[in-house]
């Protein structure tokens, strides 16, 4: 223990000794908050308008408003997304409940929408700033006050995922995960330290030695509470229970080899797991069975299993000591017990066994197929399939990352010299979180905590090398008033100044320099075209007949939700599902829970399931329409009435869309252009439904009509049109068009008549969009041997009708039907289009 960390003689002295550090941590916390709220003008606008940062943040606000509308009941099943199946909400309840309680208190029981949105915007910044507290204490008990202060500074400015997810407007549960998991590790560490220092034994529990039990018990209970808070922020919180169990196994083995009692560890583990089990139990949904992603029996069984594990490991250790069994049998017995446990789980509950076996794959293994295209789910080292340190440096800085690796090596070496439980805990915790960022870079917001602590630990070791503790004591004994400071400065040695400079230059300045750019970014989402398109959708399409803020019961297993006849879906890529729901108040087929995507999971030989990827990559209109019809199993209903496409779907992310089918080859071809290899779209791409809709404006399609478009922006759409014109003889107008385009899937009016046998019949009209842009819609067919022809057209020439789509993109005049030397005008009513009526010419 460092000299400045020794217990002081009285409460008065203790307060006097600790208040400078408390004040320093408070200042660091306020600076951390300040950094996070600098971009407030880009998030909160006049009139209480808030632009949240991500689609999940918008969805959290959706669940928050439903919670406030029905308080204290929250939404668990939501039928207004993933139509026609609905989605179970895997978000933990705690994050929304904290915002709801804050809103109710500040709003005196009736908070306004403006207040709720403002609280939602600031909440992640506040939680991010509070994280300096547990980080300080972990650093303090690892290496003293100086390490704690340095760790707090490091996390206050830590860039990358941790900072971005705790910025104003990022109303998502990730920062709550970081805060509560760190508090959990802090209290668990304190419980271990306290219990070991007091030489706690299980006999103390039976003998009711409260003077020994009191402090470890309080810390262990708090650890259980914080683990529950973490788990109730994210169902996948079992990750940290796994970390503690791995640590415990190593600690039991080391203690057994050193012939030391591990009762302190067993007591801490049992109390922590018992408390967490009790607190999590009320939130379990029994009908979910064993699920990692929803609050199910899995979370109770794992917590109880961990508690039984601590009891068993402690019992076995005691038996080893009582019977004087050689220590090296202990790890072998643990291995055998673990294997037996898995065998029993497989026999008793195969679903639980499967979940336990495959759970690590969701965290530690690089994602394949469609999930590999999710940016936050890609490996931090292999984000593009090839090794790079770019994302590592962006998240931790180069010095911070390598300092964390060196810190882990030193902690590992310490286990062979003078081991401490808290050091082994930090080592195992850091190493396992390091493995998670190999699997998914999103977990960088966890590893930022470890980087901060380990970097500070390394800085603390440097200060110890230059005898900083001695200097600290000399200052305390010399400086009695400000006048003594100049004289005291003479005590500072050159190497101590250099050590501080090294810490500032290589640890503090890099994170500060990396954090500042985040304060200048524009965080508000969605981008304006999507907000405009969803706002238009809400006002100009029929009400689907759902109560937007109601709480609905989930359907029984195997049954569909009982939607009203007026319900319908909106097809788009999953990225935009929450915007369609929260801003448009309409029901997306796919959403950012990766629901409704369709496609294939593991093999090209699988059936290509109907969904967003299958529809957008469909090679013909007929196959695309078959997908829409297959999405809704009811024979008289299609899965979607509207389709929304943006320029990114048609260009930049189309490859990612196709990857979910496990068949993404052939959509591009590499050409050498101006001594540069470029990947350009091919015929296969231009035949897809996405290209037909966005690049070709739906020209020639029978049952799809554009009904609205937003303003045009400069995108790669222009390049794609140039490629089509140059390589495939197209005649597309080489301009950027509406960034977001909305289409309607209709039955289409059937134009019939007679011409000469086998004669080509053409029909066309000029479409005028709401942006004042015009494009040609045309279609052709060949009359049969008897001269009969039929053309199905999607546009009404007579305008919208009450109760249906109030489209603002439509023909500027009647259709022109032509064959041979004959040209006729054809007028089509909206009823004809919606009902699939026949129009005889």
Automatic annotation (TrEMBL):
Its cofactor is Mn(2+); Mg(2+). Belongs to the STT3 family. It is an enzyme of class 2 (transferase). This is dolichyl-phosphooligosaccharide-protein glycotransferase. Pathway: Protein modification; protein glycosylation. One of its GO terms (cellular component) is plasma membrane. It holds the Pfam family AglB_L1. It comes from Methanosarcina vacuolata Z-761.
């Amino acid at each position: 223990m460092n000299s400045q960390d020794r217990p002081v003689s009285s409460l008065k002295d203790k307060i006097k000794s600790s208040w400078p550090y408390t004040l320093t941590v408070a200042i660091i916390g306020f600076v951390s908050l300040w950094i996070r709220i600098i971009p407030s003008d880009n998030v909160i606008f006049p009139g209480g308008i808030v632009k949240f940062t991500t689609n999940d943040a918008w969805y959290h606000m959706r669940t928050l408003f439903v919670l406030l509308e029905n308080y204290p009941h929250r939404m668990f099943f939501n039928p207004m997304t993933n139509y026609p199946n609905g989605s179970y909400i895997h978000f933990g309840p705690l994050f929304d409940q904290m915002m709801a309680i804050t809103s109710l208190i500040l709003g005196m029981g009736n908070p306004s929408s403006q207040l709720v949105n403002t609280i939602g915007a600031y909440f992640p910044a506040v939680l991010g700033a509070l994280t300096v507290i547990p980080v300080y204490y972990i650093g303090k008990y690892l290496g003293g006050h100086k390490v704690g202060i340095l760790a707090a500074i490091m996390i206050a400015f830590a860039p990358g995922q941790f900072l971005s997810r705790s910025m104003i407007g990022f109303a998502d549960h990730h920062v709550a995960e970081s805060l509560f998991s760190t508090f959990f590790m802090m209290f668990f560490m304190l419980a271990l330290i306290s219990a070991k220092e007091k030489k706690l034994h299980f006999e103390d529990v039976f003998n009711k030695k409260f003077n020994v039990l009191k402090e470890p018990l309080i810390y262990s209970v708090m650890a259980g509470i914080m683990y529950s808070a973490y788990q109730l922020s994210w169902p996948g919180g079992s990750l940290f229970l796994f970390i503690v169990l791995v640590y415990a196994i190593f600690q039991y083995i080391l203690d057994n080899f050193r012939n030391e009692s591990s009762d302190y560890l067993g007591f801490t583990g049992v109390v922590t797991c018992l408390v967490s089990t009790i607190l999590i139990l009320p939130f379990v949904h029994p009908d979910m069975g064993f699920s990692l992603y929803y609050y199910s029996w899995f979370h109770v069984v794992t917590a109880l299993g961990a508690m039984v594990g601590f009891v068993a490991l402690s019992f076995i250790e005691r038996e080893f000591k009582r019977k004087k069994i050689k220590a090296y049998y202990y790890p072998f017995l643990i291995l055998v017990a673990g294997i037996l446990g898995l065998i029993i789980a497989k026999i008793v509950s195969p679903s639980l066994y499967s979940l336990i076996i495959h759970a690590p794959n969701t965290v530690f293994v690089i994602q394949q197929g469609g999930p590999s295209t999710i940016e936050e789910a890609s490996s931090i080292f292999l984000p593009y399939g090839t090794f790079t340190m770019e994302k590592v440096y962006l998240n931790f800085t180069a010095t911070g990352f390598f300092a964390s690796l060196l810190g882990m090596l030193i902690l590992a070496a310490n286990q062979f010299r003078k081991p401490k439980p808290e050091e082994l805990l930090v080592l195992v915790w850091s190493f396992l979180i390091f493995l998670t960022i190999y699997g998914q870079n999103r977990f960088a917001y966890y590893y930022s905590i470890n980087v901060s602590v380990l970097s500070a630990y390394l800085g603390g070791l440097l200060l110890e090398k230059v005898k900083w503790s001695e200097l600290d004591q000399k200052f305390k004994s010399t400086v009695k008033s400000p006048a003594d400071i100049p004289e005291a400065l003479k005590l500072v040695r050159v190497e101590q100044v250099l050590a501080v400079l090294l810490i500032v230059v290589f640890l503090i300045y890099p994170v500060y320099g990396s954090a500042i750019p985040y304060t200048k970014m524009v965080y508000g989402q969605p981008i304006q075209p999507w907000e405009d398109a969803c706002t238009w959708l809400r006002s100009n399409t029929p009400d689907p007949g759902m109560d937007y803020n109601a709480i609905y019961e989930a359907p029984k297993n195997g049954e569909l939700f009982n939607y009203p006849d007026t319900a319908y879906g909106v097809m788009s890529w999953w990225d935009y599902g929450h915007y369609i729901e929260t801003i448009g108040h309409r029901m997306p087929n796919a959403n950012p829970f990766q629901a409704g995507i369709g496609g294939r999971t593991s093999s090209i030989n699988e059936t290509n399931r109907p969904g967003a990827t299958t529809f957008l990559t469909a090679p013909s209109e007929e196959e695309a329409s078959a997908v829409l019809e297959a999405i809704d199993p009811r024979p008289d209903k299609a899965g979607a009435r509207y389709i929304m496409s943006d320029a990114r779907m048609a260009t930049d992310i189309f490859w990612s869309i196709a990857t979910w089918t496990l068949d993404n080859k052939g959509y591009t071809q590499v050409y050498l252009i101006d001594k540069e290899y470029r990947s350009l779209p091919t015929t296969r791409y231009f035949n897809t439904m996405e290209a037909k809709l966005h690049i070709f404006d739906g020209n020639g399609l029978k049952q799809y009509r554009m009904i609205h478009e937003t303003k045009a922006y400069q995108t790669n759409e222009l390049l794609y049109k140039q490629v089509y014109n140059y390589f495939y003889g197209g005649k597309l107008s080489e301009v950027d068009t509406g960034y977001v385009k909305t289409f309607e899937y209709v039955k289409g009016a059937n134009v019939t008549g007679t011409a000469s046998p086998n004669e080509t019949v053409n029909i066309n009209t000029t479409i005028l969009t709401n942006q004042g842009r015009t494009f040609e819609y045309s279609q052709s067919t060949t009359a049969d041997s008897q001269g009969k022809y039929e053309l199905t057209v999607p546009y009404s020439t007579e305008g919208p009708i009450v109760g249906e789509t109030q489209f603002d993109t439509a023909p500027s005049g009647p259709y022109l039907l032509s064959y041979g030397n004959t040209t006729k005008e054809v007028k089509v009513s909206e009823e004809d289009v919606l009902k699939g009526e026949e129009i005889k010419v």
